[in-house]
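Title: Comparing notes on inverse folding

I've been comparing how different people in this forum approach sequence design from structure. To keep things fair, I'm posting one structure and asking everyone to reply with a full sequence. Here's the target:
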């Protein structure tokens, strides 16, 4: 009589452990290859330094060379002439201009 009860509890425990492991695996895979979670949200109406640094993947206090290197790397992957999005390219250019101080916090570029 105790054997079916023990077997049932063992199956239930194994199912619970398996469910938890599967949930953790899905969370891990959603974080991406770098292990960091991606920014989940759209663009602001007016870009600020924080959003510009998020787009380029830099700190707000990054130097000019790092900003230019990040801009070049992202533009190679997203340039409209090579199949990328013109909106993304415009936002990347706007982010570079804001971080380099070439454009004030006015309206959008386009």
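Reply #1:
Here's my take.
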């Amino acid at each position: 009589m105790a054997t079916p009860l023990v077997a049932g509890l063992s199956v239930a425990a194994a199912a619970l452990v398996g469910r938890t492991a599967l949930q953790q695996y899905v969370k891990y895979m959603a974080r991406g290859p770098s292990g960091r979670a991606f920014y989940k949200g759209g663009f602001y109406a007016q870009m600020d330094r924080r959003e510009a640094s998020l787009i380029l993947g830099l700190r707000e206090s990054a130097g000019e060379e790092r900003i230019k290197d990040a801009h070049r790397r992202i533009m190679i992957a997203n340039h409209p002439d090579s199949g990328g999005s013109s909106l993304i390219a415009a936002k990347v250019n706007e982010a570079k201009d804001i971080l380099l101080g070439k454009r004030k916090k006015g309206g959008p570029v386009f």
